[in-house]
Specification:
Radius of gyration: 16 Å
Distance between the termini: 29 Å
Number of domains: 1
Largest sheet: 7 strands, mixed
Helix content: under 10%
Oligomer: single chain
Length: 190
């Protein structure tokens, strides 16, 4: 019975949540156990966290190059590490930012990460349903989206050790719903 309760608790912790900005969110997790490999198309999911309404996935290395290991600019001549996040916003909302950070010592916002805004992390390239949202430049607002949206996030790294089995990343999507700022949070384990 103890193991059944633990399994149920782990299953419940894999949910994506929407909370007003500044409100602490519950830890979320997913699981997988493969190392990234470059392929012609990043179709195989390496890591995935799924929940009602949203799914964060790590797809591995992409042969395309949209990001560089810096705070500005696009492309550095190397394949990018690719994550996707799918969520149904329903009505139109304004996406402000996406931040993907490595969990370190059980805490989000570790030393490794990517963002669409200027600051602590390297810039990553983000598109939504095939439309480029940040054109390789830091932005404070990415634009409006509605309905089912798939964000594709491409980030460069000089350290492949950031993507080994067991590494956990957390995604924060901040958006405006009417006049209210909200945040979606989801985690994925490599």
């Amino acid at each position: 019975m103890k193991y059944l309760n633990l399994a149920a608790l782990l299953l419940l912790s894999a949910c994506t949540t929407a909370t007003p900005a500044g409100t602490p969110s519950a830890p979320l997790s997913g699981s997988a156990s493969s190392k990234p490999t470059a392929s012609a198309s990043p179709a195989a999911t390496v890591g995935s966290a799924s929940a009602s309404g949203g799914t964060l996935k790590y797809l591995g290395l992409s042969p395309t190059d949209k990001a560089s290991p810096s705070f500005v600019g696009m492309g550095d001549g190397n394949p990018d590490y690719v994550f996707t996040y799918s969520y149904n916003f329903g009505k139109e909302v304004t996406v402000k930012s996406l931040i993907l950070s490595r969990i370190e010592n059980g805490q989000p916002m570790g030393q490794a990460g990517w963002s669409t805004t200027a600051g602590k992390y390297w810039l990553f390239h983000v598109s939504a349903n095939g439309k480029d949202l940040n054109e390789g430049a830091p932005k404070t607002t990415l634009g409006n989206v509605s309905g089912q949206v798939e964000f594709v996030m491409s980030g460069a790294s000089l350290d492949p050790g950031l993507f080994v089995s067991g590494t956990v990343y957390e995604l924060l999507v901040t958006y405006l719903d009417g006049g209210t700022e909200k945040t979606l949070t989801s985690r994925v384990t490599m």
